[in-house]
C-alpha cells in the first residue's frame, strides 16, 4: 500500500489521531456540527457553499451514531465534557 497523500490514506480507511486529540484534533470554539463536517466538506457543500441543512443532517446522524452527549449540534465543543 502506497500512501503519498491524505486522500490515499482515506481510500485505505486510515486516518490520523493526534496524541492530544482535544487540543489538536478539535476546533474547540466551533460547534459540534462544524467539527464533524469540516473533515469532509464535499459531502455538505456545492460550488464552495456549505448547505446548512445537509450539514445539520450529517452532524445529527453522526452525533446519534457516536452517542455524543450534547445539548444540540450547535453546542461549542469546548463545552462538552
Account of the 3D structure:
This protein is mainly α and 81 residues long. It has one domain (17-79). The chain contains four helices and two strands; from the N terminus they run H-H-H-E-E-H. It has helices at 6-11, 21-24, 32-37, 52-66, and strands spanning 45-46, 49-50. It has a two-stranded antiparallel ribbon. The termini are far apart.
Q: What is the strand content?
A: under 5%
Tell me roughly what share of residues is in helical segments. Answer: 25-40%
- What characterizes the major β-sheet? 2 strands, antiparallel
Spatial ordering of strands, largest sheet: 1-2
Terminal CA distance reads 38 Å
Outline:
The chain is mostly helical and 81 residues long.
Q: Which keywords apply here?
A:
single chain; 81 residues; mainly alpha
Task: Give the helix/strand layout.
Blueprint: H1 6-11, H2 21-24, H3 32-37, E1 45-46, E2 49-50, H4 52-66
Antiparallel strand pairs: 1-2
